[in-house]
């Protein structure tokens, strides 16, 4: 089934990620036996080890106790499509720089990411690994990581290890920009640091970019369970979004399925943050929007811009990356404010007459909402300079599945003031409405339209 970032099933064609709900998180300390960490792991640990594992879990959102005890070069299960195993790739491919972004990540997780990249990327293609630290406070990400990097450099003199440290936390978008600026290779892969790459992850991506430098490509993400760190196979799917600009998986367009070859790249409306792109082309189309704050919306903004301004986006099934999906994000327990602000910014720049759908999705007044989205004049000049297409072209040709909400007359929320609960759409659009704790956006927006339809 298809599921978005808020854990909502959307389609039957693909299997997608069960992701932590954004409806609020329990901030109370859990006893180890009550923790989600121990629902599928750790029953044989001593009480002392359980307490240590739980403390690390609360700090990082995944099982660091186990990670610290696993080999850095552990084997991953083969999850690629069978036809991928038969493909041969040219040796004459563009060089690649791998950027790893992190903020207070566990040291063993970063080490394992580096180890997998070195071991599973052809030596003649890997020019550099760039570590971008968005102002971490963990001591082991200073001295201990430096020692590890020096040992890697001594063993691998043919490529660079680059450290970029922010003197203050600038957020995900700025960290990605810093990594891109530090790169010198032909192609830059911008990844999270809590990943492991599979065998032959780079070659399919570089082959597509060599054929077309204007295509932004993404691997398929297998899920790494936050509790036992096992790898769960995911099938290929497009990267899409709703009007709140929350990312979600979506089926590929019908023509991809008609090809009857699941090893072929599929067109995608957007990109979910992990991206591989020709370094110079990314600069030509304006890199990433430095006006985005903290987290959220920046990947959708890039996806829309790439399509409107002369490029395209593809998901490449023969490239696989295993990605840890945290139980919670310790560094940002409430992402809604930055998401809301960034979504409004992207809409103002790129979505033309459809921009108010973002207000509706977030249950924000269209006028006088009081949210500062920053100066967008330079980004609008960029749009003019690149002669980008109107957003309606995107809806018609790239993402026709996105409902344009043309017939909405009014919108808001429906709340029981005594019980402090709200009408909610339920697990997915079209589900029988339910009562749920109020959080006042997305599934709890109640539009009234010309067909008397209630609850989006």
UniProtKB/TrEMBL annotation:
Classification via CDD domains: pp-GalNAc-T (cd02510)
GO-annotated molecular function: polypeptide N-acetylgalactosaminyltransferase activity
Location in the cell: Endomembrane system; Membrane
Membrane topology: Single-pass membrane protein; Single-pass type II membrane protein
Keywords in alphabetical order: Disulfide bond, Manganese, Membrane, Signal-anchor, Transmembrane, Transmembrane helix
Coiled-coil parts of chain: none
Chain positions covered by the region annotation Disordered: 1-43
Gene Ontology biological-process annotations: protein O-linked glycosylation
Cellular component GO terms held in the UniProt record: Golgi apparatus; membrane
Cofactor(s) named in the record: Mn(2+)
Superkingdom in the source lineage: Eukaryota
InterPro entries: GalNAc-T, Glyco_trans_2-like, Nucleotide-diphossugar_trans
Pfam families membership: Glycos_transf_2 (PF00535)
UniProt domain Glycosyltransferase 2-like: residue ranges: 98-227
Skewed-composition ranges (Basic and acidic residues): 1-13
Recorded family membership: Belongs to the glycosyltransferase 2 family. GalNAc-T subfamily.
The protein, known as: Probable polypeptide N-acetylgalactosaminyltransferase 8
Gene source species: Salvelinus namaycush
Gene (UniProt): LOC120041992
